[in-house]
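your task:
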Amino acid sequence: MWTERRPGHGEDAEPLAAHHRPTGDGLLAVFDGSGGSGAAPAWRAPDGATHTGAWVGARIARLAAECWFQGVVAAKEPDTPERLTYCLRAVLDAAPTTTARSKVTGSMRRLLPTTMAAIRYRAGDDGVRWQAVWAGDSRSYALLPGSGLHALTRDDTHEDDTLEQLRQDPPMTNVICADRPFDLSARQGEFHEPCVLLAATDGFFGYVHTPAQFECVLLDTLARSKSAGEWAELLRRAIEPVTADDASLSLVAVGFADFAELRGAFAERRDSVVRAGYLDVPPADDPDAVRRWQDRTWQSYRHAYEKFMPGVRE
């Protein structure tokens, strides 16, 4: 699912979903160009439209990730974050680097900056092995029928509490870019049960009241859908009125016979999050009540949400 605040100029690249049927290998990825630090014009399209460094950077990173995955399934390249870093750097280095003067200067400015959240997975008869790779504040998740939404990544910011990140929108400490070193973090695991894996930019999860509400949106739209296409459309309708940013999401459901089985597997979980009060937002004109409700629901939700999250960096 992909939506732009300014059609044709959204700084999220189109989300990536690739699956190699013979091996069961797949890649999900999203890319959010960093519009603040990459605001300078970087490319003029044949139709005359000018695009920023953030717009270009997100699309270059998408191209590099797709090329890396094609190399992996062809057994020509190592299946490692280090190799993906090399591919990103090679494609960024090959891109034109001439940009116009920007109002963003000094340490904040980046050349072709973008976030990335990717999940490399392999589906088999006994479950799915996965590796989450990321830079910046886009996120990867697992959605499990019995326990709900689990973060598989940790934002590259100095604020480590997910609820406080919603309240503060802290600056990122690491993004993919062409002019400075960057790091890709990685986390891997395995699920021996049907699951949904997804990657999303902050246009999806950055404008809800609590992390639990993102799960509520996913489950509510799933319950009202009869197909994957309808689920994507309902997600778009749900997120566009509340987000103040471009929003992109890519997901795969592994281990379900069909869409009806997928929807039925999460029916009980949807009922439980409704009973838990995660949708009972106090009136907006009472900010103290909203804050107390956020704190209370986050404390009850946090343990399961962070179960697979990597530890805090030193």
Observations:
- The radius of gyration is 19 Å.
- The longest strand covers residues 114-124.
- Confidence is low (pLDDT under 50) at residues 100-104.
- The chain has one domain: 2-305.
